[in-house]
Amino acid sequence: MTTAADRLLRRLEWQVLRRLDGQLQGSYRTVFRGTGIDFADVREYTPEDDVRHIDWNVTARLDEPFVRQYTEDRELTAWLVLDLSASMRVAGAESSKDGTLAELAVSLARLLTYGGNRVGAILYDNAKQLVLPPRAGRPHVLRIAHEIGKASGGTPEKGATDLGAMLRLAASTARRRGLVFVVSDFIGEGWEPELTRLTFRHEVVAIRVVDPVELDLPDLGLVVVEDAETGEQILVDTGDPQFRLRLRAEVDAREAGVAAAMRRSGVRAHVVTTDEDPLEALVAMVRDAKRRRR
Question: The whole model's pTM is what?
């Protein structure tokens, strides 16, 4: 019997593998990857180098800054850190945020395992967390798809999402240096320090999943708006010009704050809206990563 997870994986394989096969692999682990984990040599520091790679012992002995160099393998251990909290379960006009998350996560997992890499997953909401250890192969991707579908079908716990706890769980679980994709709407507070700490050991790619309504609320007249995480409801007049001005200012401030936090954390951030094709967004991410490498 064909399951929903199997149907999703078959569809994504047909659409994604033919388009992106060969773009995530190459002479390096992946186009997202900047350094390997095996020490090779040291060389003199240049202004373009990452200061985190400075070898302080050699620098102290020679009185000049030197950086470590690493060999880069084809094999990669990647982690998918997936936010399945209440705010990610909201369904918009085109698609739900957790539906977009599922397609992105399964596509990334299949692309990476297709090249022989291992992928693990952390499924998180406040009430329960599931850790799937890194493995390779299609059956493992099928399990990830199945667990995402099962978790999305449950009832999330009410309350503000503790994204800091989610990122701490990722840091304590993914001990070996690798590549971490964090897929979330990043609605919440206190996550920036934990995201910064995660970048000390891993290369981190943040994918924000956003419903267009969160950016530009349409004029629907009097409506009841509910906070997905707390359950709080308020009656608002979406046609009131003053309300729309205040809302626009708050949205702009929030977006600028999130973007600034991502930059301070040193994280490569992408925004995917639920009204766009997740696979087209993934293609754009790969192309952007390749441009950055060049």
Answer: 0.77
